[in-house]
Design a protein that fits this description.
single chain, alpha+beta, 6 helices, globular
């Protein structure tokens, strides 16, 4: 029985699966988007998102933890450098999976997985949001800002 075993084995042994996910993660970090099957894309999302979260805090310990999973120095450097600065204010959800249809050869469901902040099509019309602060009513309500414009033409006449 497979009670409570949530990992998708992808038809591979453990070492093969970990190597495949590490290579796909390095390709995703390098190229910012890759095409693969839907099952592999979902497994890759679970594999790479904790690594991107660790990249937000650039410490030696986090670099070693990420390097132990990725096994490529160039990918770790890219992740902690360029990618970490782009996703610094994002609280999660660093990747997006877009389904593409079926592959011609074996009719497998294909998908494109990409880093969210690197898509120019979806992010072109968005402006950077201002930080908003929440104010409680206990400390007193904030004064309403007056929006009336004084008429200066009467003073000039």
């Amino acid at each position: 029985m497979r009670h409570g075993k949530k990992i998708n084995h992808l038809g591979r042994k453990t070492a093969h699966r970990k190597s495949m996910l590490a290579n796909m993660s390095c390709s995703l970090i390098e190229h910012k988007r890759i095409n693969t099957t839907v099952a592999k894309a979902k497994a890759l999302k679970q594999f790479v998102e904790p690594l991107i979260t660790k990249a937000k805090d650039d410490s030696t310990h986090n670099r070693r933890l990420v390097f132990a999973r990725l096994r490529q120095k160039e990918a770790v450097t890219e992740l902690f450098g360029d990618v970490a600065t782009k996703i610094a204010d994002r609280p999660g959800g660093y990747t997006r999976i877009i389904k593409l249809g079926n592959r011609l050869g074996d009719n497998a469901d294909m998908a494109m997985i990409e880093l969210v902040d690197y898509n120019e099509i979806y992010n072109s019309d968005r402006k950077p949001k201002k930080k908003t602060t929440r104010r409680s009513r206990k400390g007193g309500a904030a004064k309403p800002v007056s929006t009336t414009v004084e008429n200066t033409s009467t003073e000039e006449e």
